Amino acid sequence: MRKGPREIITPFRPIPLEIPEGMKPNEFFNSTENLDDLANNNGLLVTPENLLLYRKALGHSKEFDCSILYNTSKLILNPLGRPVRRTQVAENVKHEWNRMNRIIIDYMLESWPDPEDALILAGEASLDATWPLTSPGVPSIRMLHNHFIVFPMTELREAKLADPANPNLTDGGQHSLFQAYMRDVYREFFERALDLKILKSASDADACIRLTGYPQGLPSWEVTGGADALRDLHFWKEYDEVLKGFIDFYRTFFSQVSTHNAPILPDVHFPEEVEDVLLFDNDFMRTAKKVRDHCIADAKYANAIRWQPAFKQILYRNEEGKLIVTISQNSIGNAITELLGVVVNRIPDEEAYARCEPALISRLMEVRRRLVEADLGEGIATTGWGKE
């Protein structure tokens, strides 16, 4: 079978929301009115910490697809002031979040035990306050949320090959800024900064999904101990260390893009490695100059820069049954699934969605039951399902 990224078709039911006159769609989707609809029509469960489990109305997969959103929309009305990554979340909230992650991932691994039958992924994409609200492609809900997705491998095998030149697929490959110009220093920084015991560095071949050939060129780590390791709090601490390392690299790089020979940032997580590895590396500094010069000469290019950390971090299972963690910078418009070479083409088709909805909802209800049983929130009643 030919290896390459796949493009699948996923139907959805059109969302019955009218955008007020004079508002742009991405402005409205940040509003509390839209988030009320998300909770009231698609909400499954909410915790006292405002962690909201919900069904993805515009989903990636018909098999299993849900998210947890840290819904701070009524606590922080300024969309630019909301937490957009785990490092900005209070410890008690993160503790509950990790427990919810573990239960949902356990359910996916239990329900789809054969890696040849299903591609399983769980991950976080930053919805960062790094662009003006009116910019095209700006993330809609500026709050931290995780994805939990299962794709049947049969569907992926039968899907048509996606265009490998699709700009959303190049984010983690040889075309990306980090990988094209700073691959060696990027990896060296992770190796020097991170003291990991459960996560071990994985080769590109070990991390790869054989069917798609993705991820491409990203630093990746295998979870030693497999699914059992997810029950160890230290795994989640190491998962955060990967994010902290990425944030230090990203922020340090764009500080140098912004200002020639900028001093080390005062609040980096790994100051010694930032100074010794990054700020003393010629490739790192040469690339920052290249981007700075481009910004000065090209207003459109400069406007597209995401000056603050924008990332996708995922945990997924490959065909060998290995659990892999990887992280990538985020580009405009690209989805978390595209990190693994899966392009989702969503089409409005109410009838097609209705045919797969009962099985999908049944699985989501079972996940909700397990979370409630573990004292992780209370069910939400909607027009589609009850509270219990």
Give an overview in words.
The chain has 388 residues and is an alpha+beta fold. 37% of the residues lie in helices and 19% in strands. The protein has two domains: 1-166 and 330-388; 172-327, no CATH class. It has helices spanning 25-28, 32-42, 91-111, 153-158, 177-181, 183-193, 204-207, 233-258, 271-278, 282-297, 299-304, 350-373; strands at residues 6-12, 43-46, 51-55, 64-70, 118-125, 145-152, 160-161, 199-202, 220-223, 311-317, 323-329, 342-348, 378-379. Strands 8-9-11-10-5-6-4-3-2-13 form a ten-stranded antiparallel beta sheet. Strands 7-1-12 form a three-stranded mixed beta sheet. Strand 2 and strand 3 (51-55) form a beta hairpin. Helix 6 (183-193) crosses helix 8 (233-258) and helix 6 packs antiparallel against helix 9. The relative contact order is 0.19.
